[in-house]
Amino acid sequence: MEKVNSNYSRRAFLRSSALVGGGLMIHFSGLSRFSPAEKLGNIDLPEQWSEINGYVKITADNIIKIICPNPEFGQNVMTSLPMIVAEELDVEWKKVIVEMGPHDNVKLGPQFTGGSNSVRMYWRPLRQAGAAARHMLKEAAAQTWGVPVEEVTTKAGTLFHENSGKSARYGDVASKAATIAVPKDIKLKDVKNFNVVRHSQKNVEGEKIVTGKPLFGVDYTQEGMLIAMIEHPPAIGLKIKSFDASQTLQMPGIKDVFTLKLYEEGFEQGGFDTRTFNELLVVVGKTTWEVMNARKKLVVEWTPAGDTKDYAGGRNGKTERIVPGELETTEKQYQKMREYADRPAQQLRKDGDPETAFKNAAQIIERTYTAPFLAHNCMEPMNFFAHVTDEKALLVGPLQAPGWTEPTLVKLLNLPADKIEIQMTRMGGGFGRRAYGHYLMEAALISKKIKAPVKLMYTREDDMTYGVYRPMYTATYRAALDADKNLVAFHVKGGGIPEHPIHANRFPAGALDNYLAEGWQIPSNITTGAFRAPRSNFNAAAEQSFLDEVAEAMGKDPIEFRLELLKRAKEKPVGKNNEYDADRYAGVLKLIKEKSGWNKPENKKYNRGVAAYFCHSSYAAHVVDMVMKDGQPYVERVFSAMDCGIVVNPDAATNMVQGAVVDGIGNAFYGGLKHKDGAALQNNFNKYRIIRINEAPKKIEVSFVQNDIDPTGLGEPPFPPVFGAVANALYRTLGNRLYQQPFSVPATDKRAF
Amino acid sequence: MIKLTINKKEHSVDVDPDTPLLWVLRDTLNLVGTKYGCGVAQCGACVVHLNGEAVRSCVTKVSRAEGKKVVTIEGLSETHTHPLQKAWLELDVSQCGYCQAGQIMSAAVLLRENKNPTDQDIDDAMAGNICRCGTYLRIREAIHAAARIQQKGV
Amino acid sequence: MKKRYELPGRTIAVLVCLSSLIIFMNFRFKTQSLNRKAARQSAHKEILLEAAAGKDSAASVKAFAEVYKVLMSPRCMNCHPSGDVPLQGDDSHLHAMLPKRGKDGKGLYAMKCTNCHQPTNLEGLNKPPGHPDWHLPPANMKMVFEGRTRNQLAKQLVNPRTNGNKTMQQLIEHADDGLVKAGWNPGEGRTLPPLTHAEFKKAWITWIETGAYAPSAKKQSGTK
After folding, report:
1. What is the pLDDT of residues C103-145, one digit of tens each?
2. Closest chain B residue by Cα to residue C118
3. Taking a contact as any Cβ pair under 8 Å apart, which residues of chain A between 177 and 206 contact chain B?
């Protein structure tokens, strides 16, 4: 049994703990009630809930409801997080009703989906919540029966007192339990005794999904709701000069056309207040199609916005940033990156004397890798419902970071936080994109202006051309070998628009005596953001491809080469602050070696590529088996190994890894957004290629390292190394290495199809 | 007024005949299981059955549907027990779930026309449906599973 | 039915050998083919007589050069691909999502042409162009344009075994086929064929009526 302390926290504390991204505490709210979130679902449930704590509600009829605190965007938290509560609460999982909670940092913690955080940040609090609720139910039974609480046991939602033979369902004592003080010391289960967690449970919304129930933000509707769309400039760096909406206003169903400023001059932005365009040209009408149609009749003159200023708030006060006004073009961006790469850069880490080691090297291998902007392309385009009045605001839709969005809303709407209700719908994908809530702010301001409930809709074109992309990256890697082909020094210099990708304290840092990492960046008006581990997914492509090439130059097997470096990092680590655990890193490599039958003769028919990477506290390795199909490289089979600690929901976790592999292959081959004079050259799926079923592998075999470590990240970690494994398999397939993403090879023989 | 038969029910809608069926379903009739993904027939999120064919409702004018039978995900099976729905749940296919209605509606035409599809048949039928989460392997498996369920009649 | 179409094929085979020795062109219709019994019964007769009457290999080949430009333009060639997947766009790339021809040329399962291609064009860029009968040639008569030389394409077009069982009269009429004409109404953002439909039709008929000569297999110039 482990013992942990629960904490009683004020809102302010929770907010700051959410911002530092760790050390989450929860507040058990006693008897306060939730505003019902059933509106979106079709659950017809009684209202007489006894709220045991923020996460657990029970009726007298013994219906048990567990609240999911964190936004669901396909990572399965709506199932896996309540499973954690159910485990400690000791209830029958099949009888539990799961509901998405409202936005409420006080009762439900930081509520942030991103950074592969959901399970790892909620693991302890949810176990505590479940255990506390179970204890309160036991206490209520003990008081009712007049027996010592220590003698009360539970099993699958029923309380027992063995000596007297008494038993009660949780529901029988729920209302009493709700009045009992939250225990200070909570005993958690031994992980060995888990019977919900670590056992595959089906997606709690699976049935709603396959029967077309309203689940998503775009599905939300309300009586009298209008539809709004924003005509944003056709290029990043342009703004409205003038517009004529006379024809638009004559179109059927159109209510209004107007411009609106998102942030006032000097507005202090938080870290997730990224927005590409500040002046909004808004069309409001009755139905989506009417607004779509009427937009085409707008006559707008655009003009270069020139350099603009953004202001960031923060501990050190307000800081100013110049956003350059240049209308950017992809070729020029690559050219600029080459220029910057030759200039001195910021030193991020240095071990030993890399300069001398390179000077004395017998052989230097130097390779430069580049990758373009990536668009998230969530299947559900950005949208949000807003109904803002002078007194309060209701916002409903897909959002990864309600906690970080609310403070901005407070400022924009001039309403207190407790008058702003944010309801979180299931998201049709996120991948980092929906951490940036500008579309919610836009919806709120539009509703405030027109004084009506409104749903802001982005078309696919609006969505793809808006910005907030995975940054454009490059890195030059250098390895120095001595005359005996030993790796004696390693140098990485990375840059990007608008940030560099380098994680200086990750592998192979720590495994090499002479190591240098540097970074540089080019400011840009092209907005960027999180994208399924944005820096990592570039690094894992470049670094893992480079390590393969170095291994080959050294005459070593790529897996053995990595294991040797990790052995060194484990036994005699170089430098400080090495982020990774060399044992766990080596663990996934050893597992993938075994599972993939590495070097086994029966696998010789495949062009194999291996890669491993560490991020979000987890470790992932893949072996990709490539063949030529229809004249093109095709990943037919993949073996994946993951170490993410305890796996809460194994089948769903497997699904997630399989999805990450498919996503990785797709983005490695096809991902890339180009610009010409600030305008995105791709605005829909006919130009931005997304991997399809015929391009997906036949088999992805996923293995998890079995350990009892508290869960670490899963949504992102399996994604980055896919790029590297694909790059390495492509080398064996094509006979030459590709250094520039995307890797897609044009079809040479159309007759093959 | 345009008369439509959707999921065996008659509806009269007062919309521009050029309105895509998708928006009539979603905005006018509140049948929101059919999804908007691209608006240009690229992603398949909006697939419905029009006289049994897997049309893309985002490019199908509502006038084309007049006098024909429309079936949406909500009406694929009255009891929500179409073999594909069963198989999708059995294999827990969905991640975000946004594309899955379209996937199922496409797969339903495949299964009707080919009782025992091969992987190649599945590719040929399903490459028009994008799943951004990458659940394709489970979609493939679920279609095979649904074919078995369909054959056994359970 | 079938028999009727066998004849011209044989005729062509014989004549190709004969004529290629004498003249620059290696293929043409000759009047003696009209003596064949089956041809007398068919609609070919009139056309071929006409063609024979006005035969002019130079004019025919010249007209076909124009015809060829149109047929090899994306608007025509994209639905006459060398494989079973149509092509798309002005660069004639493989159609996204790889819809397959199917037995009847109308697609497969959930990927039938008319699931996306509506009876009419839709307003807006990147929308599928429309026609009520959108399809590819069927699997048993693929009528490939992609990759064909002028010589190959001309021969293919006049041979009922490879032209969709069309008589010369039907070939002429085919210039006004709805789906053919859809090439000149391709929807927003797509380039038109290099000739107007009227110019194309004129060149097409001229080519046929002047003898439907195929350009030399050796001497090719101009567009591919």
Report:
1. 999 999 999 999 999 999 998 889 999 999 999 999 999 999 9
2. B60
3. 200, 202-203, 205-206
